[in-house]
Amino acid sequence: MEMNAYYEGYLDNAQDTLGNMMDYAVHSCGITAEKIFEMFLISGVAKQFERGNP
pTM value? Predict the structure, then answer.
């Protein structure tokens, strides 16, 4: 049995949230996708996101 980071019911919301973050950063703030991913990883938020921490 495969264990997922997210309860299945949270997966769509988690994907939407990450997509909204990217859309806002790139289109509203003018940050490149590479830079926002770099900041996302460095901040530690990515690790919490990976673990399914709401």
Answer: 0.72
pLDDT tens digits, residue range 8-26? 778 888 889 899 999 999 9
In a domain, 4, yes or no: no
Domain total of the chain: 1
Q: Identify which has the larger pLDDT, 46 or 8.
A: 46
- In-domain check, residue 34: yes
Asked whether 3 and 50 are in contact (CB, 8 A), the reply is no
5 found inside a domain: no
In whole angstroms, give the CA distance from residue 36 to residue 22.
Answer: 7
Alpha helices (H) along the chain: 8-23, 33-43, 45-50
